[in-house]
Amino acid sequence: MTQYQFLPPLTLAMALLSLASGCSKTTGMGGTAGDASAETLKVNAQFAKALKLDDPQDFEDARRGFMAKPTGKITLGDGTVLKDFEAYNFLDGKAPDTVNPSLWRHAQLNANIGLFKVTDGVYQVRGFDIANMTLIEGKTGWIVVDPLTARETSSAALAFARQHLGNKPVSAIVLTHAHADHFGGVLGIVAPQEVAERKLPVVASAGFLEEATSENVLVGTGMARRSLYQFGRDLPRSAKGNVDTGLGKDVAYGTIGILAPNLLIEQPTQAVQLDGVEFVFHNVPGAECPAELTFSIPSKKLYDGAENLSQTMHNLLPIRGAKVRDALRWSNYMDQALEQVQDADIYIGSHNWPVWGHANIQKFITMHRDVYKYTHDQTVRLINAGYTPREIADTIKLPQSLSEFFGARGYYGDLRHNVKAVYQFYIGAYDGNPANLNPLPPQESAKRYLALLGGADKAVAAAQTAYDRGDYRWAAELLNHAVFGDPSSKAAKELLAETYEQMGYMAEASTWRNTYLTGAQELRSGPPTKGASKAMLIEMLLQTPIERFLEAMAAGLNGPDAEGKNLKVNLVLTDLKETYVLWVENAVLHFKRGEAAPDANATLTLTKDIFVKMIAGTAGVKDTLLSDDLKVTGSKIDLARFFGLIDKAPGTFAIVTK
Fold it and tell me: For residue 403, with 0-12 CB atoms within 10 Å meaning exposed, 13-18 middle and 19 or more buried, which class applies?
């Protein structure tokens, strides 16, 4: 998800004010999307022939317990559409030529949205966001599990459920893990004051708040930019655009908040009673998420696997970027889960649809366990045999017993990307070849390749030949050199866009499809004019420790500009009664909590609320320079110079046209 950076000022006001860059959604693909080629038709036909796409069991499970379907849209105050419940109505009938038939089937399954009864006293709201909201009936109200990404979608989901289930209060909240699509909407279902006044339990695993507020902070701008590719945010919802995300339909880019948990699960297994319901929680950190828990409800013979188990192979390294995940630990957690579900007849998760029947649950977990173990073990075997990441990605294929199981196919994660993640986890991205130890930057390398080929036109001609015979990977490699080496070549950009379209049309992984099609869109229309909004994170940032902000500031220091400069600033946060000394030394920004430095160039005194709003870009002049809660002593010029050394990354950098 998105995070913040700092804006270099021209004046003191500019030093401390706006960082906002509003959410942008395009209405089309920025050019005409092409039809599926003969090679794409061939590949997709092979998928349809190899897989039992007409197996009805998943469709029966995805529809089971259906109670009601939402209509209309969820919007922000300015009219921006966060969720259109009709957007995926085109997902009907046989797969079109422009969508991999296996992905089409999965997209249809995820299109079963609305309120569902899982079992007596357990309900799920699906399709209001990428994740599920689960409601468990307690003695006095609803125990809410995973309150979605945004305040707006979470509030709408709970209101929709109450229309059909009754207007019971929230009696407890369970946050299964520290990814924003599972906690960001919590303030849409309950206010912090209500939690305090009613002493509502907010349950999470040890380390949750730290991981939730630090996730993506340091490289948030880059990851947010890349997430637009992974989730296909700006693609039209159509058979030539976004059909799914793998874990659900689409992500709601609304107002993100957080609540500090007041009941931490710190033991490997820990029993807790919530509103009269007995839960058995299991700590599972360091696999899908650095802080995560699963749980059982013995009285209902129900097991919730959070996001360690979804109806798809997961990512060991997301396309948007993240810390590499531990495939072996993940597999071991699945082995533990087989013991934890001994009495379970119902499985639910943070995404997708449930599984019913003890034998089906055992098979579901076993397949996931063995997909991650096979991926891990075979990658390590080939590492030790001297294979490189690309070679391993092209070599490893899952055995038929695993590959034919729909619940662990690569709709979100992908085997080829995951083996590279295992390689990186153990020995880094460098493949050991000295030629790759210090290669030229892509643009410089591309220019030299074009010189050898005789210019961009020759490269385009060779790529056209490759394209015509369906050799899209080679065409993309040639055209990438042509676009990077000669950005003025319209022919190279258009043919590369067409190449990416075909690669997207045949991709089984929704994340790969979205990435290819977003690349095609960007080649035709250019990068987005606006990045993801920082203002929507205000409610979350107010709960973020100040240290996270200061770490981000340090990572944003422009080292070359800071060379030879020695500046020191006191930051005094009056409401927290905390003081930090920030100083630049050897072109490095340091900070330390303690007494104000008497030799500081300037002292900035303010509340955390104003500081956060400045960073997020929602504070105006009245909130800052005219506020009684903000004061500057010392040199305002030096303070402006200090903040002027901090780069602001707008999150709109080019990816396929550098």
Answer: middle
As to burial, measured by CB atoms within 10 angstroms (0-12 exposed, 13-18 middle, 19+ buried), residue 34 is middle
**Confidence grade of residue 620 (pLDDT, cut at 50, 70, 90):** low
What is the distance between the alpha carbons of residues 370 and 486, in angstroms, rounded to a whole number?
46
Q: What is the pTM of this model?
A: 0.92
- Would you state the structure tokens that stand for residue 54, as one six-digit string? 């007409």
Nearest 5°: the CA angle 139, 351, 651 is 120
Distance CA(28)–CA(183), nearest Å, equals: 31
What tokens appear for 584 in the block? Answer: 């630049």
Q: Are 435 and 395 in contact, with CB atoms under 8 Å apart?
A: no
Residue 192 host element (H or E):
helix 192-198
Tens digits of per-residue pLDDT, 124-172?
Answer: 999 999 999 999 999 999 999 999 999 999 999 999 999 999 999 999 9
CA 650 – CA 222 distance, rounded (Å):
9
Rounded Cα gap, residues 96 and 109, in angstroms: 16
Whole-angstrom Cα Rg for the chain: 26
**Contact yes or no for 567/599 (Cβ under 8 A):** no
Tokens 């959070």 identify what position? 306
Q: Which residues contact 45 (CB under 8 A, 6 or more apart)?
A: none
In terms of Cα–Cα distance, which of 646, 514, 642, 627 is closest to 583? 642
- The DSSP line for 332-362 is HHHHHHHHHTTT-SEEE-SSS--EESHHHHH
Helix H or strand E segment including 479: helix 472-485
Judge contact between 62 and 355, C-beta under 8 A.
Answer: no
**Separation of alpha carbons 591 and 255, rounded Å:** 30
Instruction: Give residue-wise pLDDT tens across range 348-367.
Output: 999 999 999 999 999 999 99
Q: Is the pLDDT of residue 519 over 70?
A: yes
How far is the C-alpha of 321 from the C-alpha of 429, rounded, in Å?
Answer: 13
Tell me if 292 sits within 8 A of 307, measured CB to CB. Answer: yes
Helix, strand, coil % in the chain, rounded to nearest 5: 40, 15, 45
Cα 125 to Cα 117: distance, rounded to the nearest angstrom: 9
Segment 480-486 shows an average pLDDT of: 97
Degrees, nearest 5: CA angle 183-189-191: 95
The set of residues, in sequence order, having a beta carbon less than 8 Å from that of 442 and lying 6+ positions away, is: 484, 658
DSSP 384-415: HTT--HHHHHHH----HHHHT-GGGSSSSS-H
Spatial distance between the Cα atoms of 488 and 505, rounded to a whole number of angstroms: 27
Residue 60 vs residues 54, 171, 355, 356, 368: alpha-carbon distances, Å: 12, 32, 10, 11, 21
Torsion angle, alpha carbons of 633, 636, 641, 642, to 10: 20
Half-sphere exposure of 35 (CA within 13 A, CB side): 3
Contact (Cβ atoms closer than 8 angstroms) between residue 617 and residue 534: yes
